[in-house]
Amino acid sequence: ANVYVRLKSGLSAGTYNGTLTAATTGTSNTLTLSGTVTGSREVDARNEMVLDIYPNPVAIGENFRIELPEEIDLNEVTMEVFDAVGELVRSEKGFGETAIERSITSAPGIYTIRVVDNKGNAYYGKLIVR
Question: Which among 23, 39, 51, 119 could disulfide-bond with 125, CB atoms 3.0 to 4.6 Å apart, if both were Cys?
Fold first, then answer.
């Protein structure tokens, strides 16, 4: 299973060790951590993985492209597009490509795109349609 944590800016690939101590009144527990950093993805303030979407903004009818980490099997992902009020306007599964490239025919506005892989990891991004 993958574990995603927020890392200190500028942390490079390598193996790291540390401890985490959680304390409440009269009680303290310490956990020893060890892990390997293999790469990084941008995460937003809600700790959600951010999609790389370009071009952005995009014109109606123009293609946009979504890049995902190489380890994700695009045959096993679902892409959903939501409008500004959260209504699902598009849903697709299985792409079989190295990136997701699609055109958008929806009205101008700001759309939220969610891509979910076969492990349940969700990636989010905003697409501006002009």
Answer: 51
pTM: 0.62
List residues bridging with 93 in a β-sheet. 78
DSSP-assigned letters across all residues of 77-98? -EEEEE-TTS-EEEEEE---SS
The phi and psi torsions of 76 (rounded to 5 degrees) equal: -110, 15
pLDDT digits (tens, 9 = 90+) for 36-52: 655 445 444 444 578 88
Q: For the chain, give the number of residues.
A: 130
- Asked if 76 and 38 touch (Cβ cutoff 8 Å), the reply is no
Return all residues near 60 (Cβ < 8 A) that are at least 6 apart: 104, 105, 106, 107, 108, 129, 130
Retrieve residue 19's tokens. Answer: 């401890």
Distance CA 59, CA 55 (A): 9
Tokens of 18: 């540390």
